[in-house]
Amino acid sequence: MMQYNQPTPIIDCDNPTVLAFAKENAGGSTDRRKQSVSLYYAVRDGIRYDPYTVDLSVEGLRASTTLEKGRGWCVPKAVLLVSCCRAVGIPARLGFADVRNHLSTKRMREQMKTDVFHWHGYASIYISGVWVKATPAFNIELCERFQLKPLDFDGRNDSMYHSFDLAGHKHMEYLRFRGEYPDVPIAQMRWAFPGDGTPDASLDEVDFDHDVEQETPDGDEP
């Protein structure tokens, strides 16, 4: 289990900023389940979900970078949760899956040329002898704004995307699980992203929430 408790250049759980965030948000309990739940909500709601910030570099994925920016897409948010768990001594790793995402924008579809998101990231946390999946991607404000059912986490059951939103529209469909890893397999992931996962400067000043809102008037499906 040692590899699931150690820092890496990406999972920098020994970074002072990450350590401070983890300590502040792990709660007052020494129970690992309660700590992991508290950390989950801190990452889910404390970091804004923004899929326009894709950056498959070590620096771009690093947990401390995500804390500094205050926003990130699914993989760096999962990295941050894994880092926080390791920072307080809870073994954690990264899981990946291919999903069909029905919460997308015209801009995203044109950029990616598909509605299938390869290598969607989630955290997998070792609690009471069991690996439990936790997906901290969509912050509560995003869910409320776009009528998505928030993903809760109790430390016992897997927290995975819902198939439908609150209005009954298709939301997320899991197509393939790609396994769980002690670190981000960047080399394996690059093919699935435009420009091999290099940041798109044209998206720097674009607001994802605004784009989704413009395409979902009166709650219509994107």
Description:
- With 222 residues, this protein is an alpha+beta fold.
- It has a single domain, classed as C8orf32 fold, CATH 3.10.620.
- The protein has nine helices and six strands.
- The chain has helices at residues 16-25, 32-46, 58-61, 63-69, 74-87, 106-112, 140-145, 186-189, 208-215; strands at residues 48-49, 71-72, 92-101, 116-127, 130-134, 172-181.
- It has a four-stranded antiparallel sheet.
- Helix 4 (63-69) packs across helix 5.
Taking pLDDT < 50 over at least 5 consecutive residues as the criterion, the unreliable ranges are 217-222
- The secondary-structure element order is HHEHHEHEHEEHEHH
CATH names the topology as: C8orf32 fold
- End-to-end C-alpha gap: 42 Å
Query: In DSSP terms, counting alpha (H) and pi (I) runs of 4 or more, how many helices?
Result: 9
Please state the overall shape, judged from the principal axes of the Cα atoms: globular
- On the 0 to 100 scale, the average pLDDT is 90
- Which CATH architecture is right? Roll
- Give the strand content: 15-25%
Number of domains: 1
CATH class: Alpha Beta
The computed structural class is alpha+beta
Main sheet record = 4 strands, antiparallel
Question: Quick one: how many beta strands?
Answer: 6
Rg on CA atoms, Å: 16 Å
Q: Major sheet: order of its strands? A: 5-4-3-6
